[in-house]
Amino acid sequence: MTKFGTYLPSAVTLIVFLGMTACGSTSRQLQSITISSGGNVSMQYTATGTFNKAPATVSPLPVSWYVVNSEVMANMSPPDYGYTLTSEPYSLNPCVLTDTVVALAPMDPNAPTSGGIPSKAYQDLVVTHTVSVEGGFVAAAAPANCSQ
């Protein structure tokens, strides 16, 4: 009983400490994306990400770029629900005023550079832009800026 009594306070302290640190720590996650266009080429887009932990802002943010045209999307077959991240700015050429540029990235900055997206998340984030965070992904949409 003496040995058990000696180790019990240390074991309880360790368990409480591990429980507190596990509950209090969250991994770094992407919270939002903003899309900017401009510079010398107004049809060039760059994504910036905001995270919950430092570094809080990353630009350019590696994202998967999509161009959505609601007129064309209505007549398309279902897309491949995937992503491929790139840090390169996106150039929209040719530019159509009814286009929408969408940047999408996983919330986890350590996620693979390519992979699948749940179909519901793809629909809500990329096609209809009804939410900005869903299914472990974050997205932002910007109307085409076709001025030159």
Question: Can you summarize this structure?
Answer:
The chain has 148 residues and is α+β, with helices and mostly antiparallel strands.
Distance between the termini: 83 Å
Gross morphology is: globular
Number of domains: 1
Helix content: 10-25%
Helix and strand sequence: HEEEEHEEEEHEE
Largest sheet: 4 strands, antiparallel
Q: What Rg is obtained from the alpha carbons, in whole angstroms?
A: 22 Å
DSSP strand content: 35-45%
- The total of helices stands at 3
- Overall mean confidence score, pLDDT: 81
Let me know the number of strands.
10
- Ranges where pLDDT stays below 50 over 5 or more residues in a row are 8-24
Which structural class do you get from the secondary structure elements?
Answer: alpha+beta
Written account of the structure:
With 148 residues, this protein is of the alpha+beta class. The protein has one domain (30-143). Helices cover 24% and strands 36% of the residues. It is built from three helices and ten strands, in the order αββββαββββαββ. The chain has helices spanning 2-24, 70-73, 119-127; strands at 30-38, 41-51, 57-58, 64-69, 82-84, 90-91, 99-106, 114-116, 133-134, 137-143. The strands form three sheets. Strands 1, 2, 3 and 6 form a four-stranded antiparallel β-sheet that branches. A four-stranded antiparallel β-sheet has the order 4-7-10-9. A two-stranded antiparallel ribbon has the order 5-8. The longest helix has 23 residues, at 2-24. The protein is globular. The chain starts with a helix and ends in a 5-residue tail after the last strand. Residues 8-24 have low confidence and may be disordered.
